[in-house]
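Progress against Task 2.4 (sequence-to-structure conversion) is shown through the following example record, which the project officer requested during the mid-term review.
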Amino acid sequence: MKFKLIAASAALAMLTGCAADGKVSDKSYLRAAAIDGNVVTLSFFSDEDENITVAADDLSQAKTAAELRAGKEVFTGYTELIVLGDDNNADTLSFILKEWKVSPECIVAGCSISGETLLSERPPKELEGAVRSAQKHGLAGKCDIVTVLGRLLQNGSAEVPELSREGFCGTSEIRSETAAE
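Structure tokens generated for the chain above:
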């Protein structure tokens, strides 16, 4: 009985700590990000959060601009998909992994059209599903952020799924900035 009372008290104490961080509704939870140079489009899990597109010099400024526009903190820890334009590299993915602290399972893909257009025309859930399906059928390899970043740093390039309006449309190679020089 004494053990149950101590366990219940400990659980109650831990639950009160969550309230100090704010409510779940006080944050926008990032589902996908498309990065085309200095244009970043963010798509969220909530139906009420529309895509937010911002122009910024770096990803930190882009996140801040999105927070100001949404009126909420953007939480990036559950991000499922990163779509890269032609001019992105290992530095971009390294920043996203270290600073945005995305999940190591976050998918990295290339895009044959602008990321803003892609995320406005196809829901991230469908795009992620297209990549997972391509992987299941052996059409795309492992493309989580850790694997892709590791290949970029080791080899200077990495193969990623290519997405379009139709979903998965093949694979493409992305190159690290240092390999391009």
